[in-house]
Amino acid sequence: NETAKKLDAAVCKEIVKALDIQHANIQPFYQFAAWAARADYNLPVEIFTVNYDLLLETALDYLLVPYFDGFVGTVRAGFHTELVAGKEGSDRKWMPSFFVRIWKMHGSVNWSRQEDGQIVRLGQPVTEGAAAIFPSDTKYEESRRVPFVVLQDRFRRALHESEKLVLISGYSFSDPHINDIIFDAASHCPRSEFQVFCYSDIPGVLATQ
Question: How does pLDDT run along the chain (209 residues), one tens digit per residue?
């Protein structure tokens, strides 16, 4: 209803404000972007993140590292499912491997949810209406819709490629639907390597795997 929409917009506005990166220490992201720019592999570097901020995009833009996030356009970019969910390996036919893929699995501060339900990417953080991020109790229900279901499928497919190196950093393992994808791939892909970097203690759900 209208009250829920207004509350959603208000909550999103506060999150966007809290994630303003104007005074953030972006140096580690510059270093990561520099590494991504030099990466020369047969398969592209794919970055999957559940963060909403624009730190990665800002660093990649600053160093002129080409990347693709599923959206096509500049001012009001639309999500193209067919470019993300193509058959395994098909994306390399239309985009070279040096393009970094960045997949924001829980949305972004510059994704805007339109009145018709469509999600578009703007050139700046959303200032009017609700950003397409999910801090509410409907987070997991919403995450099963486009583009989120497409990005989850991409994540699952990427982890199941043979002899994959997966680096996990800054993730708390507090999202069951993401955990399921990671643990399933780790158990079914014995020739892949999963490395997890923990800030402090190893999360309990990870320690029991």
Answer: 678 778 888 888 888 899 999 889 999 999 999 999 998 887 889 999 999 999 999 999 999 999 999 999 988 999 998 888 876 656 666 788 889 999 999 999 999 988 887 899 998 999 887 788 875 544 445 545 778 889 999 999 999 988 889 999 989 898 998 999 999 999 999 899 999 998 888 888 888 87
Beta bridge partners of 167: 195
Q: In whole angstroms, what is the distance from residue 112 CA to residue 79 CA?
A: 11
Residue at 143: amino acid letter: S
Name, in order, each residue with C-beta under 8 angstroms of 35's C-beta and a sequence gap of 6 or more: none
| CA 8/CA 14 separation, integer angstroms | 10
The rounded distance, in Å, linking the Cα atoms of 62 and 43 is: 23
